[in-house]
Amino acid sequence: xxxxxxxxxxxxxxxxxxxxxxxxxxHGTENIPDAxxxxxxxxxxxxxxxxxxxxxxxxTKAPVWSLADYGLFKGALGTFLDMVGAVSTKNPDxxxxxxxxxxTGEASWIIFPEGRMVKNKxxxxxxxxxxxxxxxxxxxxxxxxxxxxxTEFYRQRLAKMNEDAPxxxxxxxxxxxxxxxxPVLEKNTYIVPVxxxxxxxxxxxxxxxxLAVKLVEDIPERAIEEIMTEGSMLLSGVDVDIRFGDPxxxxxxVKCKAIKRDISAKQxxxxxxxxxxxxxxxxxxxxxxxxxxxxxxxxxxxNHDHLFASMLRMIPRKKIDQTDLKRRVFLSSIFxxxxxDYHLHESLKGKQTHLLTDDRFNKYADxxxxxxxxxxxxxxxxxLIKDRSKFSSPYDFHRARIDNPIEVIAxxxxxxxxxxxxxxxxxxxxxxxIKRKVVGHLIKNALNEYEQDYNRFYLEGESKxxxxxxxx
Length: 472
What we know:
Blueprint: H1 3-19, E1 23-27, E2 36-41, H2 47-60, E3 64-68, H3 75-83, E4 86-88, H4 94-104, E5 108-111, E6 124-125, E7 128-129, E8 131-133, E9 136-138, H5 143-164, H6 166-175, H7 182-186, E10 189-199, H8 207-215, H9 221-236, E11 239-244, E12 248-249, H10 257-264, H11 278-298, E13 301-302, H12 304-314, E14 319-321, H13 322-337, E15 343-344, H14 346-349, H15 363-373, E16 377-380, E17 383-386, H16 400-403, H17 405-412, H18 417-428, H19 431-457
Parallel strand pairs: 1-11, 2-5, 2-10, 3-4, 3-5, 13-15
Antiparallel strand pairs: 6-7, 8-9, 10-11, 10-12, 14-17, 16-17
């Protein structure tokens, strides 16, 4: 790891911040343990590969290395990736290097378990995690879990061999080039799930994409899409919520008898040897993977676009009344405010009556503008006409963020099952029921506010009876 490269990255980010309108909010940094950590992060844009090492380094004051696709290690970019501690996915010493650095605590690691950018945010299929990409689908990778397990395996084996088989302990020390045993045994291995949520997502031509087209001959369509999407985020303004989840202690996953036997085995175990407990290790890795994937997406910062996109997709009717759509999303926002296990964008934390009245924050207007522009909706008087095919027809993976952003936005909150169930129920209710629920909620709120104000400002002998002026 080259600290000069980190400083250079920091200066580049500061310079970019001067041009960018992006607002970065960090949450849950107290969840980062002072230990050996693998950060597992969702991957939607290339921004994460630059942003996350820099911010984690600022928080922990410790080096942060990452795995990067072998295809990126070419020319100047490859040199820069080497300088900041990135390791090619095809490096033959990859696993040994990662385990060694985690044992010593010399560096933390960033791994994207989805394996690539998930541009359509489609990661759930039939209730299971399944990653969509241009070539098809695949389950999330267990690499982060496997590396964390191997690290904790060798940490505990070193402690055991130090007591029972000093020669084997020396072999482990030499294998990982360890200078001292005490710092290794004092540490623990953790995986910290991290979620990045961008709001709003609006892909359009910008100064960066226009320059790229003019300056680069035969620029690939895929590159144009990425510059349009990510350039718009940086230049037009986007909120980036980076949320660190509860750390996963890996020592809890090496307690079974089969793994303990291998930890205690006195015979020589080489790094690439096939362990008797390999099958059990794989099962534990799958458990850990399911846990960190669930955690990553439970950390999603829910925003207005998520609610509008999900409601629009789930309403079974083709014709949609605009006022009715706002009411349904309003009720969805009320549901969220009562749930402490969801993370809300700042704009969802206050009162949401603006959705029913003047839309003074343009949450509805901005969303509808995109839906109309992309042909997902058409206006006919006060009614909206939904093109159902936009939510079911296949589309080019690399153009998903440009051609069908509403579907991408809706996909982002698919893993939040209770929210999905609530929106589905609201989407299927008749209009009169929705209207009655909204009116009931507003009256209840008005009565509560009146009660609080009356009690707060009541003056004995001067105030009128409570019933006078009470909302009804």
